[in-house]
Amino acid sequence: MNIFFQNVIAGLETGSLYALAALGLVLIFRTTDVINFAQGEMAMFCSFIGFKLFTSLGLPYPVAFIVTIIFAVLFGFIIEKYVIRSVNKASVVSKMIVTLGLIMVISGLATALFGIDSHYLRKAITLDNLNIGGVVIQPNAIFIILVTIVIMSVLFYMIRKTLFGIAIRATAQNETTAKLMGIPVNRITSSSWIIATVLGAIAGLLIAPTTNVSTTMMGEIHLKSFIAAVVGGFGSFLGPVVGGFLIGILDNLVGYYITLKWKTVIVYGLLIVVLIFKPTGLFGKIHRKKV
Amino acid sequence: MKKIFRSKQLQILIIGFVIAVLPFIISFKRATMTMLDTVVVYSIIALGFNILLGYAGQISLGHAAFMGIGAYMSAYITMQLHLPFLLSLLISGLVPMLLGLLLGLVALRLEGHYLAIATLGFGVTIQHIFKEWTAFTNGYSAMKPSSPSIFGFIFKSRESYFVLSIVILVLLSIFAYNLLKSKTGRALIAMRDSEHAAQAMGVSLLKYKLIAFAISAFYAGIAGSLHIHLLRYTDPNSWGIGLSLNLLAMVVIGGLASIEGSILGVVFIVVVPEIIKEIPVIGEINSLPTILTGISLILVIRFMPYGLARIMTQIKFRIQDNKVKSTAL
Amino acid sequence: MLKFKNVDAYYGYIHALKDVSIEVPKGKIVTLLGANGAGKTSILKVISGLLEIKEGSYEFDGKDLKNYKPEDIVSMGIVQSPEGRQIFPDLTVHENLMVGAYTRKDKLNINKSLIKGYEYFPILREREKQIAGTLSGGEQQMLAIARALMAKPKLLLLDEPSLGLAPLIVKDIFNIIQEINKSGTTILLVEQNAHQALSIADYAYILETGKVVHSGHAIELRNDEKVKKAYLGSS
Lengths: 291, 329, 235
What we know:
The complex is a heterotrimer of chains A (291), B (329) and C (235).
Chain A lengths: L1 H31 L6 H17 L5 H24 L7 H23 L15 E3 L2 E3 L1 H23 L1 H11 L1 H6 L4 H27 L7 H14 L5 H21 L4 H15 L14
Antiparallel strand pairs in A: 1-2
Helix pairs in contact in A: 1-5, 1-6, 1-8, 1-9, 1-10, 2-3, 2-4, 2-8, 3-8, 5-6, 6-8, 9-10, 10-11
Chain B lengths: L1 H5 L1 H18 L4 H26 L7 H17 L5 H25 L2 H21 L1 H4 L11 E2 L2 E2 L3 H24 L1 H11 L1 H6 L4 H27 L9 H14 L4 H20 L9 H16 L7 H18 L1
Antiparallel strand pairs in B: 1-2
Helix pairs in contact in B: 2-8, 3-8, 3-11, 3-12, 3-13, 4-5, 4-6, 4-11, 5-11, 9-11, 12-13, 12-14, 13-14
Chain C lengths: L1 E10 L2 E11 L4 E5 L6 H9 L4 E8 L2 E2 L5 H7 L1 E4 L11 H8 L9 H11 L1 H5 L10 H13 L5 E5 L7 H16 L3 E6 L2 H7 L2 E6 L2 E7 H6 L1 H7 L4
Parallel strand pairs in C: 3-8, 3-9, 6-7, 7-8
Antiparallel strand pairs in C: 1-2, 1-4, 4-5, 9-10
């Protein structure tokens, strides 16, 4: 039983990172109708910035963390304003292809600037492990889960209760009418790209101790965040978060109890099955199809 | 007589023949020949992929997997089963084709974003299987098949391999051309432009999505088989998302819904990096071709949605457009 | 209050507005009539900043409106209730109304406008917490108008408020439009239902394929034989 709990906690730890990234994906999708395939690459780039600030410049970890987030704000702003907005009128598939092009540009830039080696970055919390009734818990895992819960709560409060959040949802539902009501739609989409990029950067910095900082560090998280968003449904904000935790736990349990070797295949199999039988996701509403 | 020359099929044959004999007239360096061979091999998969994306309007981010399956099938059949190359070539087209049918069924339920994610998942899963199913793929120890032989002739030199792949490319181009000019082609285009309208006209989405996926997977498998016998080496890393993205870039940059465009795109993606490598200083940045490919992809979407193949037509239209506008005022 | 001088506008190659000049005086109800595609909605789009004009000029309270973004137009006090209602279906009734107040600077007075809106349309208060997509067509139209009022407009643009509604509900809604006008809001009303529109309007313009073909006081147009025949049915 202890092992089971240990796996669940490990699952919650990685799951919260999937959830952060998935929420970013959905935020962008809902406001701009773009699936940002480059989200993982953008997060990787931010992690490298954090790593450089911490090691090369020798900034204290919390400062490096905060400066990275400031970088992410600028990064998200620039990508939205100069890349995404320029193809505003293109078809859904074309917009998607643009983000695929961004994958190439950003990963290429990262390789050119930072090289292909992978580097160790410290954990956010480096205290000794706790042992609660036989279940070994890393304080860092608790920290990651807590950080995620706090960020989620703030974001959900914002989306549900504030006028800004209502404006985001209104824009997601009907952009033209949102404009007619005086909502500055450009600012809303810009904000959602910024928030999503920051979420990705946080996920990147938090996963770095496990994956190391490298150009391929986000591959796994990025793909799992897609699965989380699909399983939870792109139509809601809460679904993908739940999906993230589910995938995280499932990943660990399948890996431990069934097969480590075929874990990835099983989890992706699940993705395709969910997509086929419930394309709106487990928690998604029926998405009205525009003809 | 004139009529015959105007037939596109014959044009393809003649152009293919001229290109195939070129290396026997001008002698290229071996590295250049390898590059040319690669261009031909990728042209085959790009052609198939263009039928899927350009004509049928279905996106796939997992086509590298089909090419990989073709490669491994062909290697396994010739190396382990000791069967002839031509048979392996055929099977490495047919097996991906069957899997393509499955993906076509998936596409029937999903579109746009969701299809992209599903095919991405498919690609990653298959690549994972390449890594883990070492009995079939030999994993990271890699597969190293020998040069193919047909009726006793061994295609060992780059030049002979060039002829072999050109012959296959020409056959597949003519097949693609005939198909796209037929009722099937019109149905695919109708489906791309509006699924609802196509359905209303009696186009069976099931049938044509299956056809599009099956054909593109077949082409991918053939390309995979030719690829592995050309380079005589493959490991699971070759068949990932990177290749799928490159494939997408080839077709979009070259020109969607255009046979010539598919090949132009391949030339762009394969040849430009080789040229950049020769430039001093910036040529030393290894990832520069990736960056440029990405930038080109974005710029093409932004400024020339019909790709390199129709750039002249686009410019012509632009000029006419301006004329119309100035007369309207 | 609002003036169009010789405005020309295009959708791509389609010449949507041809040399249109109209005027909406303060405190009045002006209506734009005409068939589908006559250019009525295009005029509203121009006003709201969704469609650029090619020639001519248009101004509001003496201020040239060209080159203003939609959100600036709303801040100036011109608010549109769009055709087909276009409420936000997944937001609650209350949230829809709050979106209407997005540009308000006087946050403290928003509640007053909310109460006022509920006075015009008491049914909306009952449905306050309901998801807007579940409202009936008439209720959605009421919501769309109330939402526009939340911005405290000086000029209210109404695009086909009678579209697809039962005659009784149309009558209710037109009564309320009159009330809103009486409380000091200028109204530009786009309608296909010429009969209803002329009965409450002060002044009317009739459009055909992007051109103004008739204009005059509503009462005159109501009695004009030609207009009667073409737009009000044979009676």
